[in-house]
Amino acid sequence: MPIECLDIYKQFLLPAGITPKKHKTIETIDIMMQTGASGRG
Fold it and tell me: I need a labelling partner for 21 at 20 to 30 A (CA). Which of 12, 14, 34, 41 fits?
């Protein structure tokens, strides 16, 4: 999904002129939870 379609980018980051150095696309919730729990996202 393009970053322009994500609310966090549309409503906060892009209007503030902020572009993250890295964008990681994760498809499944279990991987999201593991990434967050390990402090990597």
Answer: 34
Separation CA 41–CA 35 (nearest Å): 6
Residue with tokens 């991987």: 31
Q: What are phi and psi of 14, to 5 degrees?
A: -65, -45
Number of domains in the chain: 1
Question: Measured between alpha carbons, how far is 3 from 23 in angstroms, rounded to an integer?
Answer: 8
Domain that holds residue 16: 3-37
Q: Is the pTM here over 0.85, yes or no?
A: no
CA distance 6 to 20: 13
